[in-house]
Amino acid sequence: MGKSLYLECYSGISGDMTVAALLDLGADQKVLEDVLESIPVQGFEIKVSRVTKSGIDACDFDVILDAEIDGHDHDMEYLHGQPAKRPIVICIPVNLRPYFDSMTTRNFFAMVSASFLPEQENMTLDEVVRIVKESLRSQINKEHLEEIFSYNVSNQKNILLRSVPIFIKAIAMRLVYISSARASTSTITNLGKIAIDEKYQKYIAHFTAMISRSAGQIMKGAVCSYKDVLSFTFTSALKELSVERYFFRMLAKDGIKVAIETNLE
């Protein structure tokens, strides 16, 4: 009769530490390496070693990203109207319910990317908007969204992938997430127009939403609107506020009334 291992992850689980612990228990490192090599994800290597911390010897498992992927943060440097060699890529979640006639309350969305490559100096806002609009228009249509949706579903039904042990899937998913996140400059999500029962409206001035930064994306944005107030929230790890300042000044310059709230002292 085989032995079973139960993990009670009441507050989450650390993928690298779990893999290290399983390797220490006797999991075959060669099997792990072979499975990871079969996954169509590049730009990383794994390192397994022994470490001693506080007098305790243990296995250490680490995922090391290539310098080209790990150094994507430089794309967030301010261009100051200058051309760039790499595009600015903004991930945008798209609500799939209107396209597939669904009323589900579960998360039902696909990610598309608005891409802009500053090839000329001092491009106007209208030029930038036109390029981004064309980029999104080519992706936000039922045919393209069906392709994304079908690809995601096909991976879930793949017999070979379903047979892979869960701890290896966890590593693979982490690598895919990091790789895709670092391939993008930032993410902006739009919650749309928020509607509230009329009897509660007098108690609410406006809504705000925010999303936390992630690997390779040190600044993100969230949009929502309530009545005639639209809120755009920046979350950023940068001390420098030139991006936010320029954004709101552009809105004010176009005659839009702007009120700024911040948690900075």
Mean of residue pLDDT?
81
Largest sheet: 5 strands, mixed
The count of strands amounts to 7
Any idea what the radius of gyration is? 23 Å
What global shape is seen? globular
SSE succession: HHEEHEHEHHHHEHEEH
Helix content: 25-40%
Give the amount of beta strand, in percent.
Answer: 15-25%
Poorly predicted ranges? 69-79
Number of H/I helices: 10
Strand order across the largest sheet: 4-3-5-6-7
N- to C-terminal distance:
63 Å
* Helix and strand composition category: alpha/beta
Q: Can you describe this structure?
A:
The protein is built from 10 helices and 7 strands. The longest helix has 17 residues, at 166-182. The radius of gyration is 23 Å and the shape is globular. The strands form 2 sheets. The protein has a 5-stranded mixed β-sheet with strand order 4-3-5-6-7. It has a two-stranded antiparallel sheet with strand order 1-2. With 265 residues, the chain is an alpha/beta fold.
